[in-house]
Amino acid sequence: MESFLTYDDRNMRITDAERRSVRKAVLEAHMRIEKARVRGEREFLDLPFDLRSMTAIARAARRVQKRFTHMIIVGIGGSDLGARTIWQALGGSKATLTFASNPDPESISHLLTSIDWKQTAMNVVSKSGTTLETMAIFMVLRESLIKEVGTKHHAEHIFVTTEPSPDSPLFQIATEEAYEVIPHPLNIGGRFSVLSGVGLFPAAVSGANVRRILAGARTAETERRERKCESVAARFALNQFISMTKYARTNHVLMAYADLLSQFGFWYRQIWAESLGKVRHGVSIGPTPIAAIGAIDQHSQIQLYNEGPDDKTTTFIEVERFRRSIRIPKVWGNHEAFDYIGGLSLERILHDERAGTEHALTMHHRPSGTLRIHAISPESLGSLFITFEAATAYMGELMGVNAYNQPGVEEGKREARRLLSR
Amino acid sequence: MESFLTYDDRNMRITDAERRSVRKAVLEAHMRIEKARVRGEREFLDLPFDLRSMTAIARAARRVQKRFTHMIIVGIGGSDLGARTIWQALGGSKATLTFASNPDPESISHLLTSIDWKQTAMNVVSKSGTTLETMAIFMVLRESLIKEVGTKHHAEHIFVTTEPSPDSPLFQIATEEAYEVIPHPLNIGGRFSVLSGVGLFPAAVSGANVRRILAGARTAETERRERKCESVAARFALNQFISMTKYARTNHVLMAYADLLSQFGFWYRQIWAESLGKVRHGVSIGPTPIAAIGAIDQHSQIQLYNEGPDDKTTTFIEVERFRRSIRIPKVWGNHEAFDYIGGLSLERILHDERAGTEHALTMHHRPSGTLRIHAISPESLGSLFITFEAATAYMGELMGVNAYNQPGVEEGKREARRLLSR
Fold first, then answer.
1. What is the per-residue pLDDT for A209?
2. With contacts defined as CB-CB under 8 Å, which chain B residues touch A341?
3. Widest CA span in chain A
4. B413 part of the active site
5. Which of A113, A293, A358, B172 is most open to solvent, judged by the fewest CB atoms within 10 Å of its CB?
6. What positions does UniProt annotate as the active site of this protein (chains A, B) (predicted)?
7. Is B415–A360 a contact, with Cβ atoms under 8 angstroms apart?
8. A-chain residue closest to B327, CA distance
9. Residue A1 pLDDT more than 70?
10. Which residue out of B281, B299, B336, B411 is catalytically annotated?
11. Quick one: pLDDT at residue A111?
12. Quick one: pLDDT band at residue B1, thresholds 50, 70, 90?
């Protein structure tokens, strides 16, 4: 079984002795996760093996493809970050996806003027079926849809991803209006849901190969279960945990050297922040995730990472082989600034720039690690998703926090609702 | 004179006594900045008044518009973040802008397949004229341009923004090949250059109203000079400085409640990080800027901001009036989850969500401030740019660092160059 993702942590500035000192805690974390999983309480780790759900998703997606060339995904946070990531990284030739997250009148009015509803389906995603922003945008878009295709036929365009439970008002509406329901898994939070219908239904509609995404996730997850403390997920969590608790390196930068992984950075930001930023025994703890893109952020953030406070870890994502290769022509050979790159490839530049940045961080005594994927492929993306989900689970166990709730978002929601109900 | 930008810092959790204790230092910082400016050493603060350069830029832009409908900007970091910000926020009806920053073969090959060179100009931007990524992409795009329009006519498509100095290899090339040069101001670093031709030439080409951008910047800058310590820029810097040094709140979140300001967040990230992340007397200091978007990041980062470590300040950008208004239809009145928002507007939701988030941060004893702009307009954008540039200058003075160099990026560049020359 080939790995689609490897992890080089030699430059993390953590000694073997330090690793050994936390090893027992990691092993215990592993056992707790596995016990909970076997009890059915970590269902996100079993999603890669749920081929039955995937078949149903693929079937629903084919029905969409038969009739529509576009789909609008209405969702926010865990309801759309995964699908956005897959769409950016893999694209798809069957349908074009558009995302509507923010109740910003300028973006939504721009969207409204560009929709041809005859060709367009809409996937409304909300686990609880109550998400304010999503419901508001859905109500606006639905009115436009009905105006164009009529009340009678509008339901054929709408696919609702929510918990199939009477507790979800969106599920109740779907029943009343006869919208097709893609079930949101009951016990999986939004930020751990990308490998369920939440992420895979839009991906399948677009034409991305969801079987290969799951196969990649399966490979990484099988490896995790077998290798225990030595898995990429466990090692990544161990390194971040020691960096955070022993060295106060609380800012965790993920810097992908690939434009098509910028959305992955936003997906990571959510799972790392919302799962681990918690109050434990009255004390506020948790790392701050930061998403960066190489080489772009060498010209924006690297000055800070190299010379600013030693409060960060940097994890690179390196793509070993790009799907395209571009050669730089040899011109202006009499100018040194141009001559030395003539004949090289763009991917060579990106590789060597990452190596240069790693070198500079090391010279400045700043820790870095590198996650390597063979290519931006469905398999490597599936591996990345499940690996970061598992790493989050390990970090939660090591930190002693519940990685699966988000009590700190309620206060603001309540206040907004109070203001809106005035 | 109307202000296009106001600042509410009542929730910053800083007492009047604390403010008074730093007031003298801020006043001294102000005097040093003004002295340096009068000596001609803070030229970025005078750009809003440089109407002569702007007239030349507008004239060059009209020549582009006459012949082309598209322009590709090749640049990275300070060479393109400003133009990207203006293009996203204001758009323009005269020409479509596309940006090429990263030597990522997948994005560049995607770009190459979509260019119609007959309709397309190219603006290559590099202050030093040596930027590796920019030169590489330029050489690739130029080859494609020549293939389509021929060597003889290709120069008509190319506009080079660089220092008009023999030290810039790009300037030498421009002279040899007869490319039109838009001069990069000699004494202004990339991240302070948005209000020069670096940002305004692409903006003018697209059709954005650069006169109004400068007018907004002029208003804010005039106010800064008059109000000294009471200006938005000085107050913002003072609050961030006290938060950082006295309360160890080193992570500075800028959270705009507007999709069209997400690029502004990236522009801010550069100026704050690269200017202030420095070694001073052998000690690494500096805030870490973080860009967020409301309401989206309420579903991703707010759990961390509310309950995670008290190491952050949050500054909201609130847009008072959006250029569009969208009403949510009244439907499903029998479902409470939908009923309470029926009849409201999307912008009302965005406003009340920001207020809810501010309330929640305050309940969790986390500081926040709010920058208010009347609308996303050329004037407010100009005000934001110059205000953050000036705030960076104040912070540099208060911290005792040189905000205008970036010694920490050299190590990585050298190593990359060594690897590439192998």
1. 97
2. 132, 135-136, 139, 420
3. 73
4. yes
5. A113
6. 274, 299, 413
7. yes
8. A140
9. no
10. B299
11. 98
12. low
Q: Is the pTM of this model over 0.90?
A: yes
What's the rounded mean pLDDT across residues B216-220?
A: 98
How far apart (Å, rounded) are the C-alpha atoms in residues B353 and A132?
10
Of the residues B153, B335, B364, B413, only one is catalytic, namely B413
For residues A364-380, average pLDDT: 98
Residue B240 has pLDDT above 90, yes or no: yes
Chain B residues whose beta carbon lies within 8 Å of the beta carbon of residue A132 = 341, 349, 353
- Inter-CA distances, B302 with A262, A277, B265, Å: 20, 9, 17
Q: pLDDT band for position B2 (50/70/90)?
A: confident
CB contact under 8 A, A295 and B103: yes
Residue of A76, A138, A144, A288 for testing the chain B interface, max B β-carbons within 10 Å: A288
pLDDT at residue number A2 = 75
**Distance in Å, alpha carbon of B330 to nearest chain A alpha carbon:** 8
Check if A278 is active-site. no
Three-state secondary structure call for residue B161: strand
Q: Token match 């022509």: residue?
A: A329
- Identify whether the C-beta of residue B194 lies closer than 8 Å to the C-beta of residue B127: no
Q: What's the pLDDT score for residue A422?
A: 86
Instruction: Write phi, then psi, for B96 (nearest 5 degrees).
Output: -95, 130
Taking phi first (over 0 means left), then psi (-120 to 50 degrees means alpha), and beta for anything else, what does residue B248 get?
Answer: left
Residue B134's closest CA among B123, B143, B125, B146?
B125
What percent of chain B is predicted at pLDDT more than 90? 98
Mutation target vs B (from A84, A88, A106; most B CBs, 10 A cutoff): A106
Helix axes B232-247, B16-38, angle to 10 degrees: 120
The tens digit of pLDDT for each residue in A321-330 reads 999 999 999 9
Q: Domains in chain B and their CATH numbers?
A: 5-37+213-404 (3.40.50.10490), 44-208 (3.40.50.10490)
Tell the burial category of A151 from Cβ atoms under 10 Å away from its Cβ (0-12, 13-18, 19+): exposed
The residue annotated as part of the active site, out of B133, B163, B223, B274, is B274
- Find tokens 């190590």 and name the residue: B411
Q: Does A277 have pLDDT greater than 90?
A: yes
Contact A328 B295 (CB under 8 A): no
Q: pLDDT tens, B245-265?
A: 999 999 999 999 999 999 999
- A274 catalytic residue (yes or no): yes
For the record, the structure tokens of B226 come out as 């008059």
Sheet (strand B96-100) strand order? B96-100, B70-74, B120-125, B158-162, B180-183
Residue A339, burial from CB neighbour count under 10 angstroms (0-12, 13-18, 19+):
middle
The H-or-E segment that residue A70 falls in is strand A70-74
CA distance A291 to A376: 18
Q: What is the percent of chain A where pLDDT is above 70?
A: 100
3-state secondary structure (DSSP) of residue A74: strand
φ and ψ at A97, to 5 degrees?
-100, 140
Token pair 């600013």 in the structure block, residue: A308
Given a contact cutoff of 8 angstroms between Cβ atoms, the answer to whether A113 and A92 are in contact is no
A133/B419 touch (CB, cutoff 8 Å), yes or no: no
Which positions in chain A touch B79 (Cβ < 8 Å)? 299
Q: Are B104 and B136 in contact (CB under 8 A)?
A: no
CB B304 within 8 A of CB B363: no
